[in-house]
Amino acid sequence: MTMSTLLSHRSRGVALLVLVLVAFVLLSVLAAVIFSVSMQTYKIESWQADHNNRMRLSYLARSSANAVIEGISDDVASLGASELHPIDKKASVKLIDADAVSLDIEITGDASPYVIVKTEASDGKAEPVTVTAQFNVNTKKIVNWGGSL
Amino acid sequence: MKRAGSLFVEVLIAMVVFLVGLIAVASVLIFGLHSVARSCEHLKDEQSLINEVEEYMASRIFSHTNSPSGANTTCISAGKSLDIDGFTVNYSIYRYILPDKPGSRYYIIQREH
After folding, report:
1. In contact, A89 and B86? CB cutoff 8 Å
2. Which residues of A touch B76 (CB under 8 A)?
3. So what's the pLDDT on residue A27?
4. A42, A104 in Cβ contact below 8 A?
5. Is B61 in Cβ contact with A66 (below 8 Å)?
6. What are the extents of the domains in chain B?
7. Residues of A in contact with B103 (CB under 8 A)
8. DSSP string covering A30-78, please?
9. Residues 22 through 51 of chain A touching chain B, CB cutoff 8 Å
């Protein structure tokens, strides 16, 4: 049955029906593609937001470990450390109110010649970031960085 | 009863409906392309900010003397001290931030004498 036969008999309006169906299918496919792209973009944005949070915490942890080590470097004696009396000092501080960032700091070791400074930055959203820095009090150099940088 | 030209009108209506949908989809795609173009610039700015922070960190660890500087840097808290079981560290907090993207902000703690 040809199109002209179809149109000349009882099947009036079938062209419109076909057109509407084709349009519906095309728009549905386009909508599915756009939805899929949107979901992928959303996933990437979420990953990027998490990554930014972790970077923020990482810089805080690293810079605070370095700040503590600078203090130790200038005045090792104030730690009062020896092989018989190893250091074990801890502190927690809330740093930035706006981002609810808090920091846990731990100083361990016996200063003969190493002191280890461990800092953990957390904001309650991203996974906490822990950084350890091993400091040689004789050479006054950080010899090793570790943790979840 | 068959009216002359009724099929033509039906097709026209279908085409209008289809075109409206197509225009909506096209505008979404154009908006998406603009966003991608903008995000490229944002990414460059953000990487530049991260480079600033990394450069500061690297030089500070070696020299213990330099301070954060630049248009994107602000000291948000100064003259604070941290007591670690009797061991005191004085410090300031600096913030690196992109003015048009507040989500990209990083903080640095610097020891002060």
Report:
1. yes
2. 96
3. 83
4. no
5. yes
6. 6-111
7. 49, 52
8. HHHHHHHHHHHHHHHHHHHHHHHHHHHHHHHHHHHHHHHHHHHHH-GGG
9. 23, 26-27, 30-31, 34, 37, 49
The pTM (predicted TM-score) of the whole model is 0.78
Q: In what order do the strands lie in the sheet with A141-147?
A: A87-96, A101-109, A114-122, A129-136, A141-147
Residue A5 lies in a domain: no
- Is residue A82 included in any domain, yes or no? yes
**DSSP for A87-149, written as a single string:** EEEEEEEEEETTTTEEEEEEEEE--SSEEEEEEEEE-SSSPPEEEEEEEETTTTEEEEEEE--
| Residues of chain A positioned with their CB less than 8 A from the CB of B60 | 63, 66
Does residue A2 lie in a domain region? Answer: no
pLDDT in tens, A91-134: 888 887 777 889 999 999 887 889 999 999 998 888 899 999 99
- When computed from its CA atoms, the radius of gyration of chain A, rounded to whole angstroms, is 32
B51: tokens are: 């480079």
Q: Structural domain tally of chain A?
A: 1
A93 at B interface, C-beta within 8 A: yes
Residue A137, C-beta contacts closer than 8 angstroms, at least 6 positions apart? A72, A73, A76, A111, A112, A113, A114, A115
Residue A117 is assigned to a structural domain of this protein:
yes
The boundaries of the domain holding residue A59 are 14-147
pLDDT of B60 strictly over 70:
yes
Per DSSP, the three-state class of B92 is: strand
pLDDT > 70? residue A9: no
In this complex, the residue of A20, A49, A79 whose CB is nearest that of residue B87 is: A79
